[in-house]
Every structure is written in structure tokens, then in C-alpha cells.
Design brief:
Layout: H1 3-21, H2 30-56, H3 64-82, H4 86-108, H5 113-133, H6 135-138, E1 144-145, E2 150-151, E3 154-155, H7 159-180, H8 184-194, H9 196-201, H10 206-232, E4 234-235, H11 242-255, H12 262-288, H13 294-312, H14 316-349
Antiparallel strand pairs: 1-4, 2-3
Helix pairs in contact: 2-7, 2-8, 2-10, 2-11, 2-12, 3-4, 3-5, 3-10, 4-10, 8-10, 11-12, 11-13, 12-13
Length: 350
């Protein structure tokens, strides 16, 4: 086993140790921190799906919240009306959302750019309408309640237990995304994003792979929505509005479109930013007599952050962290070389 392999295994073991010990750490606000971590993990799954579609395939979508809603309502309906367990409901949420994504994607993917964005926006608004008005299944604005699930006899009824499920699935989604782009399908996605006409000329069925990308993205969204349903134990149409889709677009823009860890960085940023905004408003409102509501102020800050990243760092936080790692690596390499040359000159002088 070479040094690089040993270093890789060391990182994996370190991650596993932190993963297991973190929820048992003695933080004063452990429960609240675990809530933020769980929400971030759900966001990572949904953002990975959107990143596959937008970042890697180049297809703009404003319907991620609607697809997450399909997954959430699938879990709620199967759990409450059919009494199915979690290990059936969660995959079913992904599969049914995939089918909905294919139905939406088939006509939409004939379009490009702005027109595709408007098409997915129409799908988002249509799904919102269904959630509100198909009362026999969704109970309309009253929403649906679902009891906490069991896994292997363990009741998933608190933040600490749910942490292992959500973070585990987020890690699995990230690994699956990384492996996807080592396959012919993933390389076809990237070729379509970079130059779809050239991709078609070399034999790639552009429409087929766009539809596959839409299906995979929808599967991720469905699982994220189903997981969200289990975590919140109550769902209603308000949870899957257009503003949530905008949040997911912000995640991949800020994190870095077309990068593996961009979805992770973006999800962390978008989940934690409202907390920072809330604390900032608590400080500024008494001093400046601000009249903005939290929702309005949040959208203002989100808009400013997206514009800043699009102008100054289009590749997002992932590129920033990559440059920092390279600088640290180069600095360490220079120090090693300098130490080696100094020791060599000392031996020569000796």
C-alpha cells in the first residue's frame, strides 16, 4: 500500500470517527446544531440532484422544490394510507418522482436556456397546484402528518438518531454522484453541457441522455423530499414553493456548478446563511429601526450573494477552497524542498 493510499484511508477513518462521535459531543446547543446538520444533509441530496442536471448537463431547472414535494407526498401517502415501512417508502419516493420527472422532461427537453427554465417553472407551479387542490390525497393546505419511522427496530424520533440516516444518505448520494461521472453516461452529460452539437456529431443521443439526467436528478429530489417528510413529520404545500427551488439554485451557484463538493458547500452555506441573517437582524433592527421582515431581508441577501458569486467567482466556493488547498500544498512543498536543500548543503560543507 503506497503513501497516497494510506493517506486516503486515514482520511476515511477520520471522517468515520467524526461522523460517529459528533452527535454525542457535549455542545450546549447540540440539538439545534443537529437540526442544522440534518437540514444540510437533506439539502446536499437535493443539491446533488440539481447539480447533475444543471451543473454537469447544462440544463436549467426551477422545479426542484416541486419534485421534492412529489417525493415527500409519496412517503406521506404510502406511510399513512397504505401503512408501508420506510425501506419501501423512501425508494418509492425516488422512483415515482423519477417518473414524474420523465413526464415533465420529455416535452421540456426539446427546449433550451431561458425556455427550458420557463418550462420547469411551469412544472413547479403545476405541482404546487396539485399539492394544494388534490385534497383526497394531499389534504390540501391542512397537510399530512406521518409517524416517525422504524429502521431495524430503531425508532427514528429525534435529531440524534435521524442524523445517522440523513448524513449517511448524503454521503451515499455524494459517492454515487462521483462514481456516475466516471461512467460513459456521466461523460456524455459533460459532453452535452460543453457542446451539445459536437456531442451529437460524435454519436451521443443528446435527447436520451438529457432525459436520463432529468430522471436521475428527479430521483435525488424525491429521496430528499421523502427524507424531509420523515424528519418534519408534517408536510403541506407551503414547504415546496418556488422560493425553495431558488434556494437550491443558489446552493449550486454558490457552492460551484459542475463540482462534486460544490453541492455540499452550497448546502452548508444556504442552510447557515439564514441563521446568520436572523442574528444580524436582531442586532440591526433596534439600532436602525429596520422594517424589513426576515423573509424579505433573506431574499435581498441571497440575491446579492448570487450576483457576487456569478460576477467574481462563477465556480463558487469549491474553486476558492481548491485554490486554498493548492496554495497550502505548494507552500508545504517549497518548505520541504528548502529543508532538503539546506540539509544537502550542510552535508556538503561537512
Amino acid at each position: 500500500m503506497g503513501p497516497s493510499n494510506r493517506q486516503g484511508w486515514l482520511y476515511y477513518l477520520l471522517f468515520l470517527m467524526v461522523f460517529v462521535l459528533f452527535p454525542f459531543s457535549l455542545f450546549q446547543y447540540t440539538k439545534y446544531i443537529l437540526f442544522l446538520v440534518n437540514m444540510t444533509a437533506i439539502g446536499v441530496i437535493g443539491a446533488q440532484g440539481l447539480n447533475i442536471l444543471t451543473g454537469y448537463t447544462g440544463l436549467i431547472s426551477l422545479g426542484q422544490a416541486g419534485f421534492m414535494g412529489v417525493g415527500a407526498y409519496t412517503v406521506a401517502i404510502l406511510g399513512t394510507k397504505a401503512g408501508f415501512p420506510m425501506w419501501i417508502n423512501l425508494p418509492a419516493a425516488g422512483i415515482i418522482t423519477t417518473l414524474v420527472g420523465i413526464i415533465v422532461g420529455t416535452p421540456s427537453l426539446r427546449l433550451k436556456g431561458f425556455y427550458l427554465a420557463m418550462s420547469t417553472l411551469a412544472a413547479e407551479l403545476l405541482l404546487e397546484y396539485v399539492f394544494k387542490n388534490w385534497e383526497t390525497m394531499t389534504h390540501g393546505v391542512q397537510g399530512l402528518f406521518i409517524t416517525p419511522p422504524h429502521i431495524f427496530g430503531v425508532l427514528i424520533n429525534n435529531d440524534r438518531v435521524f442524523y445517522f440516516l440523513s448524513v449517511g444518505l448524503a454521503a451515499l448520494a455524494t459517492i454515487a454522484t462521483r462514481n456516475l461521472f466516471r461512467t460513459r453516461v456521466g461523460r456524455a452529460f459533460i459532453a452535452i453541457r460543453d457542446r451539445d452539437i459536437a456531442a451529437e456529431l460524435i454519436g451521443i443521443n443528446v435527447f436520451k441522455y438529457k432525459l436520463v439526467s432529468f430522471a436521475i436528478s428527479s430521483f435525488y429530489a424525491g429521496v430528499a423530499g421523502g427524507l424531509w417528510c420523515y424528519y418534519m413529520t408534517i408536510i403541506n404545500p407551503e414547504a415546496f414553493q418556488l422560493s425553495i427551488s431558488i434556494d437550491y439554485v443558489a446552493m449550486i451557484i454558490v457552492g460551484g456548478m459542475g463540482t462534486l463538493f460544490g453541492s455540499v458547500y452550497g448546502a452548508i452555506f444556504v442552510v447557515l446563511l439564514p441563521e446568520a441573517i436572523q442574528r444580524l437582524m436582531e442586532i440591526l433592527q433596534p439600532l436602525l429601526h429596520m422594517e424589513y421582515t426576515f423573509a424579505a431581508f433573506k431574499q435581498i441577501v441571497f440575491g446579492i450573494m448570487i450576483v457576487i458569486f456569478l460576477i467574481f467567482e462563477p465556480k463558487g466556493l469549491s474553486e476558492i477552497f481548491s485554490r486554498l488547498r493548492n496554495r497550502i500544498s505548494n507552500r508545504n512543498r517549497k518548505e520541504v524542498n528548502q529543508n532538503g536543500s539546506l540539509s544537502g548543503s550542510a552535508k556538503t560543507n561537512g
